Amino acid sequence: MYSFYNDYSSPCCDEILEAIANARNNQYDGYSLDTISDQARDKIRRTIGRADCDVHFLVGGTQANLTVLAMMLRPHEAVIACTSGHINTHEAGSIEATGHKVETVAGVNGKVTAKEVEQLVLARPDEHMVKPAAVYISDSTEIGTIYTLRELEELREVCDKYNLGLFLDGARLFSALSSPLSDITLPDIARLCDVFYIGATKNGALFGEAVVITNDKYKDGFRYIMKQRGGLLAKGFLLGIQFDCLFTDGLGYRLADHANKMALRLYNGLQQAGCRFISPYCSNQLFPILDNRLIEKLSKDYSFAIWEAGERESVIRLVCAFNTPEEKVDEFISAYISLI
Amino acid sequence: MYSFYNDYSSPCCDEILEAIANARNNQYDGYSLDTISDQARDKIRRTIGRADCDVHFLVGGTQANLTVLAMMLRPHEAVIACTSGHINTHEAGSIEATGHKVETVAGVNGKVTAKEVEQLVLARPDEHMVKPAAVYISDSTEIGTIYTLRELEELREVCDKYNLGLFLDGARLFSALSSPLSDITLPDIARLCDVFYIGATKNGALFGEAVVITNDKYKDGFRYIMKQRGGLLAKGFLLGIQFDCLFTDGLGYRLADHANKMALRLYNGLQQAGCRFISPYCSNQLFPILDNRLIEKLSKDYSFAIWEAGERESVIRLVCAFNTPEEKVDEFISAYISLI
Amino acid sequence: MYSFYNDYSSPCCDEILEAIANARNNQYDGYSLDTISDQARDKIRRTIGRADCDVHFLVGGTQANLTVLAMMLRPHEAVIACTSGHINTHEAGSIEATGHKVETVAGVNGKVTAKEVEQLVLARPDEHMVKPAAVYISDSTEIGTIYTLRELEELREVCDKYNLGLFLDGARLFSALSSPLSDITLPDIARLCDVFYIGATKNGALFGEAVVITNDKYKDGFRYIMKQRGGLLAKGFLLGIQFDCLFTDGLGYRLADHANKMALRLYNGLQQAGCRFISPYCSNQLFPILDNRLIEKLSKDYSFAIWEAGERESVIRLVCAFNTPEEKVDEFISAYISLI
Amino acid sequence: MYSFYNDYSSPCCDEILEAIANARNNQYDGYSLDTISDQARDKIRRTIGRADCDVHFLVGGTQANLTVLAMMLRPHEAVIACTSGHINTHEAGSIEATGHKVETVAGVNGKVTAKEVEQLVLARPDEHMVKPAAVYISDSTEIGTIYTLRELEELREVCDKYNLGLFLDGARLFSALSSPLSDITLPDIARLCDVFYIGATKNGALFGEAVVITNDKYKDGFRYIMKQRGGLLAKGFLLGIQFDCLFTDGLGYRLADHANKMALRLYNGLQQAGCRFISPYCSNQLFPILDNRLIEKLSKDYSFAIWEAGERESVIRLVCAFNTPEEKVDEFISAYISLI
Fold it and tell me: Mean pLDDT for chain C?
């Protein structure tokens, strides 16, 4: 049995494990106030090309999303997201639990458009409605698509026009930036977003999301809110060690590049065999449409998520990870071909 | 420089590191729904001697406290804690951020007494006040003391009388149970508390708190609230691996026993040299009272927390951990003696 | 200038004013614990035909909605509502501010259908999503339509099937029940809903909503939550006096009947003159579609809300109230006819 | 039976009743956006002597407190109050339900001192604790005492020093300002506080609290939060009518002056008969200490609150109101004298 279920099913890459092992007799200050965390923050700032941004380390994505939005929004303010946005569907109402409404737009290919944002804002003119104050986007998105530079610039423009903060959920940002189709760099992200994070959990680390705050307006009090929401890890140096690894010699990009390449190999193999997908190849997640009987047969040897169940055919999700072996990809393609 | 600052300044014990390394090519289901997490849950249930309790794994203590209390309390209900209780002082208002008041009692030696609980409940007769619905205790407490069986039984009694849930924060439960002064076992804890947790972060793990729910009333919906508050770790199998280690061959107890023994050695050494403490030796935390000039000198070679600053003398906190070397304890004692 | 803007633009009916004036030298207990409030509660229970329901008086509708849902839902639970539901659109995120997601269905004619409820529940299978635990409906709805007995029974059935509480916002319940098209009575509402309220603010009182809780499951702690959310009126006897009036000699129904009749007169007059509406006549709110130039001209003498602005024609809302004079209705019809 | 239980046991003064009766055929805009509310706001601004403050009308005190503090505080921020402060004791955890901790100081005579504020702030140095960001005071206080100008100026100073907002709960502000012992005016309050409110519920109105925001920092978004928390009254013109009355020809002050005078008469009468009090006469609330048997006998003809029950003697609360008749005061004194 091999799993294409997600990109967080194995512990971590060897480099990270080794770094932790090497540190095991050291003593560090708690709560990411240690020297290795500082070093990791500096490496991130250098990669971004900006010295003036705050960098905070959190353990997971839902935690990062709710902490950032609790910080960004006043009580009556809402965040705009795609209907398919992770905060709207798969975080158990975490944003509402911080007191805020998630206002949704349909999106195009899983991406929020500037036009939708404008329409939504204009339709909320007074205090009987919530006040939209932030836009949440994911890159890569929940269906594996990625934003173009043009799309991000348009979002920035509409955010400036209506005084909205732009927040990018980068749980799979390494994968998005490493995509062969990407025309965006980390400095672009930092220039266009007010807050974003760089995910490590889904890119070869044990865990970890590095929240980067570029807009001064959103810097104050963040560590308080981290602590209050249970997100200030006692052994924060573990986050420092891992991000230090990922930002040394481009390791984070290399791991994502591998996952993306395996996904492309899988995509090409399946497509050449006639398989259809709900969205074109972009990053490490694929969403093929398969006959239900085929799904049943493949399930004997492979695990994957049923994304959208249908009566005759369904959409499944196949995810490649930092450690997906080429031979498993090829075996899956062969299995597919032999079964159709 | 050696640190007695806390018990979470080094990564983890060798056994845990090795277990993670051994698992590094495995694939697991996410969110602690994997087989190793199940195995760890079973070992914990067996150690407790009860098959009917729910076991959930969370990353940290503040997270565990707020998740458990969000689950236990209805909107108008409050939790009773000691003034010195961690949720009242050092969690940045996390419980209030879930909507609940922390009602405080003075406590005796850092411990909530049954009598105080009763008085507080009786003084809140109607809907103009919050309704106390749970009691929060820590064992060992924030000042290193431990509950006796008698004290816990009295708390259970008052909780039954007034329909309160009893919740024990066991961030340092291994240390409490391993104390030479303890007359309590884990089955006692499970019998007397409705919810408690067993801390691993401060006992040699990378991170992790195992929440045990023994009362059916509090079982429903807990994983939802974990997810909603950002506490459902994607790579939950890491928690499973660590707790599996700690509950294999008594590792958790052995680690705590070492920390306690080092603290006792330190306590005896200092006390014989004339040092006073704010509370007697109980577990791995010591609170000696030192002259401020002495503190300044010791600070050159040792790091520790100033617990309570005074004009001439102050209380410091010295913490021994799973990996505190005997020679560092002895060196500290010698340094103390040479400086007084 | 005459206003058809809403049904809460004048103080109150004479009967209520007189009752308050008569009481002005009396002394009452506070917080609706007085004898006149008890008397009003009894009259409501008798009208409903059930002695076993709890009746609470609140000042306004948003307050009632948020207090009831704060009471009904656990932290991870959500309420299902129509996209057009008041709690989803016009209460400034009040439900989210209590921590809960409002999950929406499209609805048919402003009404939630049982089928939609079932589909939504089935699509939320696990703890990564919120757990639907209540259904919110308004009767009459935000677009003036009313539920049939059959529709309510189907909702009750699906709620029973999936363990959902059924909560009816009756800000305009008197109007709905007094509609010539209604096949429902107050006892039906009480039998089919777990919680509902009877609005007085929009039916001739100064203010007031009487929350009725018929399901024991939802009774505990409600006064605490009222107090906590700022909804326990100090001079609660004012609510008692008003509801006592409305439930004496059918006053509440008479006032609503008048409003409904004026709306019907207005509807017939406009329709006979060729006017179209977005929904058929049901109760005291009408939603005609008018040419924008006509709207501009009518605005000189009449005030009303623009419900949905279009480029050439728009939907306006005309509301009749307990004190709308027949001649104002006729004048409006004449004005309409003279301007088209 | 005559009640000295509180100052909100009768509907309202004749002037207010008459004003509402006069308005009963008018039509007004909703939500306090009407002309009479504007007129009342202007009168309040003129009385204060400042044109640049925002004035909002809310129904009740708990509602005002929670709305103001929800607006003033960011998620990790706390409000400082007296242990006896209304928000800490008698509002069912309303502030905590908005997510914020109430940090308490002991106070002197029911009043927060500047020194206590400073000590509390200095003891919360980092993100493990909440961040104090506002100070809540009541004037008159919960035990009837009033702030001196000097005390308020010192509080202002410490608030400026530590960047804290100063919020005054004026549920009984008319009574405080009308006290013969007061050296403060409404312009003083406006100059020294960032936000305060002027209570009408306890001063002869049906209901109503006028929130005045003098600091620009706290103005944005307040109506949104009012709406969201259920505090934006549909028939807001009722609040406008009442405050217009209270600020016409000094009615509000006259009503309070009467209540204060009756309390003074009662105080003098009882004191001359040998009665002791827990605090000296200041405003319309008195707290005499009576023998429990005497309390029992007085209870046959008078109702009042038991403030602090003791074994042999207890503290009761006697409150005079806008409509307390002189003869009832004299009768009570006679009854007391005849029974001791």
Answer: 97
CB contact under 8 A, A128 and C91: yes
Contact A255, A203 (CB under 8 A): yes
Give the pLDDT band of residue B340 (cuts 50, 70, 90). confident
Find the helix or strand (DSSP H, E) in which A59 lies.
Answer: none
Size of interface B-C (CB pairs under 8 A): 48
The residues on A that touch C, with CB distances below 8 Å, are 75-76, 78, 89-93, 96-102, 127-130
D263 and D257 Cβ atoms separated by less than 8 Å: no
This complex has an ipTM of 0.97
Spatial distance between the Cα atoms of B178 and B195, rounded to a whole number of angstroms: 20
Report the DSSP beta bridge partners of residue A185.
none
Nearest residue to A12 via CA among B21, C125, C66: B21
Which residues neighbour B49 within 8 Å (Cβ) at sequence distance 6 or greater? B187, B190
- State the Cα–Cα distance between residues D164 and D157, nearest whole angstrom: 10
D70-93 tens-digit pLDDT:
999 999 999 999 999 999 999 999
Q: Tally Cβ neighbours within 10 Å of residue C249.
A: 10
| Gap between the Cα atoms of D98 and A211, Å rounded | 26
Q: State the Cα–Cα distance between residues C65 and C86, nearest whole angstrom.
A: 9
- Whether the CB-CB separation of A322 and A256 falls below 8 Å is answered with yes
Closest partner residue to B99 (CB to CB) among D90, D96, D127 is D96
**C237 closest CA partner among C22, C4, C27, C16:** C27
Are D89 and B127 an interchain contact pair (Cβ–Cβ within 8 Å)? no
Q: How far is A151 from chain D (nearest CA, A)?
A: 31
> Considering CB atoms only, which of C93, C97, C128 is closest to A92?
C128
Position C97 pLDDT exceeds 90: yes
Q: What is the pTM (predicted TM-score) of this model? A: 0.97
Cβ–Cβ gap C129/A78 under 8 Å: no
Average pLDDT value for residue range A49-60: 96
The H-or-E segment that residue D230 falls in is none
Helix (H, G, I), strand (E, B) or coil at B318: strand
Only one residue has tokens 């603010």, namely: C201
Q: C60 vs chain A: nearest CA distance in angstroms?
A: 14
CB A226 to CB D127 under 8 A? Answer: yes
Cα-Cα-Cα-Cα dihedral of D56, D60, D64, D70, to 10°? -120
- Cβ distance D224 to A131 less than 8 Å, yes or no, reads yes
Q: Is the dihedral of CA A102, A103, A109, A112 positive or negative?
A: negative
- How many A×B Cβ pairs under 8 Å? 154
- Encode pLDDT of C98-146 as tens digits: 999 999 999 999 999 999 999 999 999 999 999 999 999 999 999 999 9
C266's enclosing H/E stretch is helix C251-272
B131 CB neighbours in chain C (<8 A) are: 221, 224
Query: What are the residues whose beta carbons fall under 8 Å from the beta carbon of D139, sequence distance 6 or more?
Result: D146, D147, D168, D169, D170, D172, D173, D176, D184, D189
Q: Are C266 and C329 in contact (CB under 8 A)?
A: yes
Amino acid of residue B221: G
Distance between CA atoms of C312 and D2, rounded to whole angstroms?
Answer: 66
Q: What digits encode the pLDDT tens for the residues B243-290? A: 999 999 999 999 999 999 999 999 999 999 999 999 989 999 999 999
The C-alpha angle with vertex B159 and arms to B155 and B161, in degrees rounded to 5, equals 120
Closest CA to C102 of C125, C73, C145: C73
3-class secondary-structure state, position D10: coil
* C-alpha dist (Å) from residue D35 to D31, D32, D47, D59, D236: 11, 8, 18, 18, 11
- Please list, in sequence order, all residues whose beta carbon lies within 8 angstroms of the beta carbon of residue A189, skipping any fewer than 6 positions away: A48, A139, A152, A168, A170, A173, A177, A196
Chain B residue set in contact with C, beta carbons under 8 Å: 70-71, 74-77, 98-99, 127-128, 130-131, 221, 223-228, 232
